[in-house]
Specification:
This protein is an alpha+beta fold and 237 residues long. The relative contact order is 0.19.
């Protein structure tokens, strides 16, 4: 007995780019998480290859797995995770916004066009600029959610994934440094609302060879946890 696959076509608009010419990894992870789970369960998304922009891709859902492919090439795979993700501790919004002054990307950014953390125009990109929080091992930013990223149901998980993604990289990066996202586990507890103000927090949790590990979270102004993520990045050789 075989399980029939549910297939849809996904095209990533150029707006949601990360490195030049390819999709933001967190946007893809959030999209896959939404395809696989409509509740608060965590979803782990592995990026096997860069996802091209403005290209028809095959999103396939079989049993507990979702995959994204371009022709015969597997790009992304998502599976459910039976655990709650750890979240770095809350940083108040004013303190998180103050930390942005230390954002390393202002002094050197490998991907200045990135949808989440790039130096794009307000309302086009998310402009999440995490910097060190004094006296802690955290980086943080104050996220003011633009109305331009919302749909009729609010802010989609693709956008939430983008925010949770890049901030874990900046927990490691010095000016000009970069890596590519290899895996992101995402867990969304509450909705994000356009026009809202949120604290975005991350910490580096280790390094193993070329692999960089981190965890991140989004909090409401009262400290309520909105979403959390666990990331693995692959640094260049």
């Amino acid at each position: 007995m075989t399980t029939a696959a549910l297939q849809t076509v996904l095209t990533v608009p150029e707006r949601f780019r990360g490195p030049e010419g390819v999709a933001n990894g967190g946007w893809i992870a959030g999209t896959m998480a939404e395809a696989l789970s409509d509740n608060r369960s965590a979803v782990e998304v592995t990026l096997h290859a860069p996802t091209p922009l403005d290209t028809e891709l095959r999103l396939e859902h079989v049993a507990n797995t979702a995959t994204l492919s371009h022709g015969d090439r597997l790009l992304v795979e998502a599976i459910p995770v039976a655990e709650d993700l750890n979240a770095p501790e809350f940083v108040p919004f004013t303190e998180a916004a103050r930390a942005e002054a230390g954002f390393a990307g202002r002094r050197g950014h490998a991907f200045p066009e990135c949808f989440a953390c790039g130096l794009r125009e307000p309302g086009d990109g998310l402009r999440v600029f995490p910097g060190p929080v004094e006296g802690t091992d955290l980086v943080a930013a104050g996220w003011r959610v633009p109305f331009t990223v919302a749909d009729e149901d609010g802010v989609p998980r693709s956008v939430v994934g983008s925010v949770l993604d890049c901030v874990t990289g900046w927990a490691h990066f010095q000016p000009g440094e970069s890596a590519l996202l290899g895996r992101l586990a995402v867990q969304v507890h509450r909705r994000v609302y356009p026009g809202g103000a949120y604290s975005v927090v991350a910490r580096a949790t280790g390094r193993e060879g070329r692999k960089l590990f981190g965890e991140s979270a989004i909090y409401e102004v009262d400290g309520t946890l909105v979403a959390a993520a666990r990331a693995t990045w692959i640094a260049p050789r």
